[in-house]
Amino acid sequence: MKRNVHVGSDFDDFLRYEGLYDEAQAVAVKRVLAFQLEQDMKKARLTKTAMARRMGTTRAQLDRLLNPENPSTTLATLVKAAGALGKRVRISLERA
Fold first, then answer.
1. Does some domain include residue 54?
2. The domain containing residue 65 runs over which residues?
3. CA spacing 20 to 30 A to 26: which of 13, 14, 19, 46?
4. How far from each other are the two terminal CA atoms of the chain, in whole angstroms?
5. Which of 59, 70, 57 lies closest to 26 in space, CA to CA?
6. Helix, strand, or coil here: 28?
7. What's the total number of domains in the chain?
8. What is the pLDDT of residue 7?
9. Residue 49 belongs to a domain
10. 48-55 vs 75-84: helix axis angle to the nearest 10?
């Protein structure tokens, strides 16, 4: 019986090999954050305009924050958004 040489590797290994792992991680984290923010906005019955006003920013900046394909969100913007929803940001580093 022939052994499958592809068994044992995983998708993360493939992304690392292709040099795409860090970018994929950033996009995945951003998608989760954008989803959570949108859900919390719905629970609070906040429009984008009202949310931007609470954050002290523009609606365009809020749209960039909520865009899951745009991973370049600053921590300051994320903290403002969380505060506007009565939440706080908690970040931790984990072993890979």
1. yes
2. 12-84
3. 46
4. 34
5. 70
6. helix
7. 1
8. 66
9. yes
10. 110
From first to last of its 96 residues, the chain has per-residue pLDDT tens of 666 666 667 888 888 888 888 888 888 899 999 999 999 999 999 999 999 999 999 999 999 999 988 888 889 999 999 999 999 999 998 887
Could you please report the per-residue DSSP string of 10-23? -HHHHHHHHT-HHH
Confirm if 56 and 80 have CB atoms less than 8 A apart.
yes
Question: If you search the block for the tokens 């970040």, which residue do you land on?
Answer: 91
* Whole-structure pTM value: 0.79
d(CA 85, CA 96): 31
16 assigned to some structural domain: yes
Q: What pLDDT does 59 receive?
A: 95
> Is residue 1 domain-resident?
no
pLDDT of residue 6: 62
Q: Are 57 and 63 in contact (CB under 8 A)?
A: no
Q: CA gyration radius for the chain?
A: 18
Residue whose pair of structure tokens reads 């002290």 in the numeric block: 56
Type of residue numbered 58? T
pLDDT of residue 8: 64
